[in-house]
Amino acid sequence: MIYAIDIETIPNEEAICLLPEVKAKANLKDEKKIKEDIEAKRQIQIEKMALCPEFGKIACIGIYGEDKKEVLVGEEKEILQKFLFEFLPNINLAQIVTYNGKGFDFNFIIKRALYYRLVRIWELKVWCDKYNATNMHVDLMSEYCRYGEYKSLDLLSAVYLGEKKIEFDVKEIPELMKTEEGIKKLKEYCLKDCELTYKLAKKFGYE
Asked: What is the 3-class SS of 35-103, one letter each residue?
């Protein structure tokens, strides 16, 4: 049995103060343009925070398998506790499959869990070792791509499954999380990514 996992992340507002100082272009002299340049660069910094576990947070964790289709949403620590201590210990010999999960999803999960002292640092190696495809975690992107290649989940889903991801702007996630309708939209997007990863894993021979 396999379970596909996918996460969505957001900037951590509490970590904005830790971002490096932003400077305007050296050739700018006008105070207004200097301020605009700094604000624009700061906004880009903030948007990119979601990609880094030191500056970002987990908005949700999607789980998709034959007997379980769920998206964990809520406070980050509670999401991690449910995933790490309620879901993972109860999957027995099942394999976890992800798409870029060793480089991103599980790397993010474990490092955010370290922040709350929920795991120990060597669990990074257990879940994120890119050179080990025989453990519980199989990263389909690592298995499929070779020698620095990058192929998106959307592309492989279109080629091998005839399906596409849901069109979605991840920058909207912080706003979506403020309403029930927005959370529903986020869950649908995350679960679709899990479903595509699951179907690709089946297509590639994982059972």
From this structure: HHHHHHHHHHHHHHHHHCCCCEEEEEEEEEECCEEEEEECCHHHHHHHHHHHHHHHCCCCEEEECCHHH
| d(C-alpha 59, C-alpha 9), whole Å | 5
Which of left, alpha, beta for 74 (phi over 0: left; psi -120 to 50: alpha)? left
What pLDDT, on a 0 to 100 scale, did the predictor assign at position 34?
73
Contact indicator for 4, 182 with CB cutoff of 8 Å: no
Q: Tokens in use for 82?
A: 């449910």
* Contact call for residues 188 and 166 (beta carbons, < 8 A): yes
pTM of the model: 0.90
Q: Is 199 helix (H, G, I), strand (E, B) or coil?
A: helix
* Residue 130, both tokens: 């890119």
Q: Are 83 and 58 in contact (CB under 8 A)?
A: no
Q: What is the residue whose two structure tokens read 């989940």?
A: 153
Q: b/e map of 19-40 (b: 16 or more CB within 10 Å)? A: eeeeebeeeeeeeeeeeebbee
Q: Which domains does the chain have, with CATH numbers?
A: 2-7+62-203 (3.30.420.10)
95-98 β-sheet, strand order: 68-73, 56-65, 2-11, 95-98, 137-139
Indicate the pLDDT class of residue 132, thresholds 50, 70 and 90. Answer: low
Contact 123, 111 (CB under 8 A): no
